[in-house]
């Protein structure tokens, strides 16, 4: 009888020990969220550091918005600022911080979009709303205001800050 009790106790202990080794304790969601927020902040800080180094090398004077957009708007205003629902007509050139040109509008063939309807980079839309018709701007969009983690899957690599040179030609109601 004692042997049976001993064997049962040993089997129970081995079983408990085995379960403790193979089961992982669940990680609380708050811990996962805290770690992801920390990683995100490190990426944002790294992007900002690269952008500030570019601004310093180019000797630019730029303003930073709350979202992280860097901009320099210049030229004489010839009309109103765009509002939601307006169609903006503009020429542009997009390049990377290393100077690689990615895209540009064709001469005599400007681009357009409806303000507030998406379809363009968040940073471009934010900046267009700061400009007046007739003005020009140099914008630096960090990845979170441009094409994010994956780039545009064409000419803009993943996690790239981009430089927009924009001329706001017209604001249509």
Order of helices and strands: HHEEEEEHEE
Distance between the termini: 94 Å
Label the CATH architecture of the domain at 63-172.
Answer: Roll
Poorly predicted ranges (pLDDT <50, ≥5 residues)? 4-10
CATH class of the domain at 63-172: Alpha Beta
Number of strands: 7
Task: Please report which band the strand proportion falls in: under 5%, 5-15%, 15-25%, 25-35%, 35-45% or over 45%.
Answer: 15-25%
Main β-sheet, in a few words? 7 strands, antiparallel
The overall pLDDT, averaged over residues, is 90
Which fold name is given in CATH as the topology of the domain at 63-172? Chitinase A, domain 3
Principal-axes shape call: elongated
Give the helix level as a range of percent.
Answer: 25-40%
- CA radius of gyration is 27 Å
Q: Which class of secondary structure composition applies to the elements? A: alpha+beta
- Count of DSSP helices? 3
Family: Belongs to the FKBP-type PPIase family.
InterPro entries: PPIase_dom_sf, PPIase_FKBP_dom
Catalytic activity: [protein]-peptidylproline (omega=180) = [protein]-peptidylproline (omega=0)
Protein name: Peptidyl-prolyl cis-trans isomerase
What would you note in describing this structure?
With 173 residues, this protein is an alpha+beta fold. It has a domain at 63-172: Chitinase A, domain 3. It is built from three helices and seven strands, in the order ααβββββαββ. The chain has helices at residues 2-22, 29-58, 122-128; strands spanning 63-64, 70-74, 87-96, 101-104, 111-114, 136-141, 162-172. Strands 1, 2, 3, 4, 5, 6 and 7 form a seven-stranded antiparallel beta sheet that branches. A hairpin with a 4-residue loop joins strand 3 (87-96) and strand 4. The chain is elongated. The N and C termini lie far apart (94 Å).
